[in-house]
Each structure stands twice: as C-alpha cells, then as structure tokens.
Amino acid sequence: MSEQRVSHRDRDFAVEILRVAAGDGRLTSEELDERVEAALAARTASDLAELTADLPLEGMPPQAREVVRIDQRFGDSKRAGRWLVPHRMEIRLLFTDLKLDFTEAVISYDTLHIALDLRIGGNLTLVTAPGIVVDADDITYTRGEIKIAPVTGPEVPVRLRVVLTGRSTGGDIVARPPRRTPSQWLRRKA
C-alpha cells in the first residue's frame, strides 16, 4: 500500500464508507465508532485502506472531479439535474450560452471556484437555490453585464459558495433563482 499522506477529503470519504456499511448492518455500532475514530486520525492511505478493506463500495455516491474544463465555441450547453459539482471549473466560451443549474446538483464541496474567459457572445447563467451564494467581485469585464440576484435572508445556511474569477470581454454573467412554472405563478396570484 502507498504511504502517501491523506487529506481531510480522503478521511471523510472513508468515514462515509463506514457509515454506509453500518447502515447496511455490516458493522456494529461499536465497530463503527472504533473505525471512525481511527479514520479521523489516519495519516496515510494504507491506514485508511485497512479500515475499509473488508467493506464493499456499492451504494457509495460517486466522487466529484477536482477540475472540470469547458472550452466551447458556438452553441448552447448546460449542466442540470443531478450533476456532480466539482471543486473547480475552468470555463472558456465564445458565442456560447452555458447554463449551470444548481437546483438538483450534488454538492461535494463548500466552495466552487470558476475561472472564466468569456469572449463575445459567451454567456454564463447560474441557476441558484437557497443556500447558494455567488461572488463575482473578482471578474474583470470590458463589455457585457453581470447580474447577481440578491441572496435571501440570513436564516438560510450557505451550502455552496460559487467564486467567479477571470474576465469577460463581451459576455454576460447572470445568477438567478429558478424560474417559476405556470402553476406556481397562478398559485401566487390567488
């Protein structure tokens, strides 16, 4: 086994494997407590491997990638539904509309860093949900607009902070809540 040092994320993943195994009845509560304590104190990959070697990985949620790169010219693109939110994204758009819909997304990290290069006609739309905050303070733009919908009250804890950096030389950035369906509009008017 590798003697590579483990990160907090590696420890958290091992703990999740242990919790799923306990939920399936593969570990007693005493074994779970003992192994979780050992996992949180683990320093190397081999330490964690010993704790999970006798457990299956089925039923575990897939792990999000560290970096996702989108480099597109012309057309439309979107991430919607139950997509895995990575830790970082590098997005370069030219005459392309990209929509990142976070309303059903699987969020593995507390921060998403997006490095942008929006050229003419390169537009980014972020569809947010309660608890998702967008920070566009580090965007340099010469043309185009940046429209960030205000965050709802302090009673909603922040689940994901989206930090935008980079530049826009002709594209728009919009962060907004999901659009209401016609039935939601009718219920609101009643």
TrEMBL record:
Residues of the signal peptide: none
Every DUF1707 domain range: 5-56
* Coiled-coil features, chain-numbered ranges: none
InterPro entries, alphabetically?
Answer: DUF1707_SHOCT-like (IPR012551)
Where does the source fall among the domains of life?
Bacteria
Region: Disordered, residue numbers: 171-190
Q: Name one Pfam family in it.
A: DUF1707
Q: Which PANTHER family match?
A: MEMBRANE PROTEIN, MEMBRANE PROTEIN-RELATED
> This protein is called what?
DUF1707 domain-containing protein
Q: What is the lineage of its organism?
A: Bacteria, Bacillati, Actinomycetota, Actinomycetes, Kitasatosporales
